Amino acid sequence: MKQRKSSIFLSYLFLTIALVVIMFPIYYAFTMSTFDEKEAYSFPPKFIPSIHAVDNFATAWKTVNMGRLIFNSAFISITVALAKIFLSMLAAFAFTYFGNFKGKYFFFAVILITHMLPLPIRIVPTYELMRTFGWVNTYRALTIPFFASATGTLLFRQLFMTVPSSLSDAARIDGAGPMRFLFNVLIPLSKTNVGALFLIEFTYMWNEYLWPMIVTNSNNMRVVQIGIKMLLASEAQAAEWNIIMAGAIIAMVPPLIMLLLFQKTFMEGFSLKEEK
């Protein structure tokens, strides 16, 4: 009994320490966003919030037109996430329920191989393609190259393979075609996976910096991550870290909102798994 209590105590102690380590940078960033310039450079550093939060957040918002940047990031992230989910479902559905076409495993392997190619390797040919199409500095260049998802295809394929074949047989007997079976049966069963993939892809695109920096050339098409970089002063001037941290805190809010919105979906999925 004592050994069990000790094990529980150590587990909670470890989790508490891990939580502090993870949350401290966020807390310090928020604290820094409430300082004035003098307090931001004070030594030893302060860890108690100050009274300049409103001014700093307003300055960060106006300096880089943060509202426009957040709109761009949100539009790009939501569009890419939804497109990836839809296309991944169609691809997984084809690989799972249309298993007689030639080259099935070859094409699936090719899809997985593309997942191993990091974005920097694809930047030059992708940029040349966008320039040829005349899509540079447009939403099409910021979204369409990211529509395909090897991760999503693999995720939904593995899920669809666990669905009993009796369901598809019953749907076929009832006169349901393939697309009706997909939308009326498989998608409702995939709610948890859809929520998880949406959060992953939304966060990935929200944090994207390199590609938007390369493919856009006007401030109206920039994204929020570039906006944080724009808050940095030139090398001849000292960086206003209180303003930069205010911008970083603003950029954290939309992904946090998405996490809170989809939290219930995750919990329902966990509950179903525990019941099984």
TrEMBL record:
Keyword Transmembrane helix recorded: yes
GO BP annotation list: transmembrane transport
Residue ranges of domain ABC transmembrane type-1 in the record: 70-262
Membrane-traversing stretches: 12-30, 74-98, 105-121, 141-160, 181-206, 241-262
Compartments where found: Cell membrane
Membrane topology: Multi-pass membrane protein
GO terms under cellular component: plasma membrane
Pfam family, one: BPD_transp_1
Gene3D superfamilies: MetI-like (1.10.3720.10)
Protein name: ABC-type sugar transport system, permease component
